[in-house]
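Hey, can you fold this one?
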Amino acid sequence: MLLAFVGMPGSGKSEAVSFLAQKGYSSVRFGQVAEDGIKEMGLPLTPENEQMYREKIRQELGMAAFAIRSEDMIVKLLATHPTVVIDGLYSWEEYVYLLDKFANLKIVYVFVRPEVRYKRLGARSVRPLTAEQAKKRDFSEIEKLNKSGPIAMADFVVENNETLEAFHERIDGLIFELGLVI
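Sure. Predicted structure:
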């Protein structure tokens, strides 16, 4: 099974994938494509270079670029692991591309109320955002990255409005519900 976590910035997608990785699940982070590409270009890893690379690869391959570039790794991991989790599926085009390639794709929407997300994003140690910046990013991701499609088509919703422990319990509940094994 391919299990992709989607949601708005600060919702806990990476936390969910990290939690499952600690339990032994294999994972693919679409952001790794940009980091590897920037390194191959001999550039430092900065927010500006990440944005430049994301735009460059999407110009070359379209809005499904990160799914296209991650497909080989997903296939490789699924050959030896019954479940692979994805962090970073953003666009409708990525979703459609993966759904066409992997019939066992399931989407998990991590929902957090905006005010909770904005508070968390403001408290981050890496790239903190003001509430105004976070809201602007929300609009940008919905309008420019076609992010709302995968969220609307989610097979499951996991709320993350409370403590980290409560979120982990909900992820464990989802894994139990799906009957997933490592």
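The CA atoms of residues 53 and 72 lie 20 Å apart. Let me know if you want another pass with a different chain boundary.
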